[in-house]
Amino acid sequence: PPEIRFEDVRFTYDGVPEAALHGVSFTAPAGRTTAIVGPSGAGKSTLLALLLRHHDPGEGRITADGRDTTQYSLGALRRGIAVVSQETYLFHATVADNLRLARPDATDDEVTAAARTAGIHDEITALPEGYATVLGERGATLSGGQRQRLALARALLTDARVLVLDEATSSVDERREADIVRELTNAANDRTVLVIAHRLAAVQHADHIVVLDAGRVEAVGEHSGLA
Ligand code: ADP
Ligand code: ADP
């Protein structure tokens, strides 16, 4: 998996006097979990949008595997970075079909393994195929947590070697969020994981934490040194 590195990244939105990012630098080591934590307005979404090149680049450099992200095609860059967020789009189809659509050439064993790792396996096997629809019109409705796990299973089925959890679990209490983040990062083995969250307690199991505030890196370290 790639190392992701931000080098003195600055970004200002058009028509806004104050910069959203004032020279952000950090390294997300290959194959490890790095948390980006900060309050609302800290610049977390801006940072992710720049990584995915949803905005034109500002100043500074963002690299993946030592290569500037602007040197990748947009398709290759975005295929390489799977994002699980609260608004992850699920297809109006069965759980099994949602998994297969993530990678049509995946074998049944691969689909099963991803579902098991993400903790959504019971929902594909316990119910007749075609029964558990994502939107729950017929049969079982998926809970919020189950939808999240389905989104994670889909991300795990793709070839993406970078997994971003974008405030995916911020609606649950922080203790539970910490447990979920730990489960998710365990499931993501052999990927570089970025966890975006607004509470430090939620990411206590991350290998490495970057604290962002008002567009600046305030601190970097392990949870024990920051709390
Ligand atoms: P976070 O994700 O940590 O809440 P954001 O990256 O959304 O932070 O915001 C960082 C700063 O950029 C804030 O001051 C915010 O108001 C501003 N901002 C975010 N998105 C836009 C936008 N589309 N246009 C103008 N300003 C924005
Ligand atoms: P919700 O209350 O959001 O509907 P569930 O009822 O599906 O969530 O949660 C059941 C269990 O799954 C809980 O023990 C919870 O900690 C865990 N869980 C919830 N969301 C996730 C997730 N995204 N990944 C892994 N486990 C989760």
Automatic annotation (TrEMBL):
Residues 4-227 form the ABC transporter domain. It is found in: Cell inner membrane. Belongs to the ABC transporter superfamily. Siderophore-Fe(3+) uptake transporter (SIUT) (TC 3.A.1.21) family. This is ABC-type transport system involved in cytochrome bd biosynthesis fused ATPase/permease subunit. It comes from Streptomyces candidus. The lineage of its organism: Bacteria, Bacillati, Actinomycetota, Actinomycetes, Kitasatosporales.
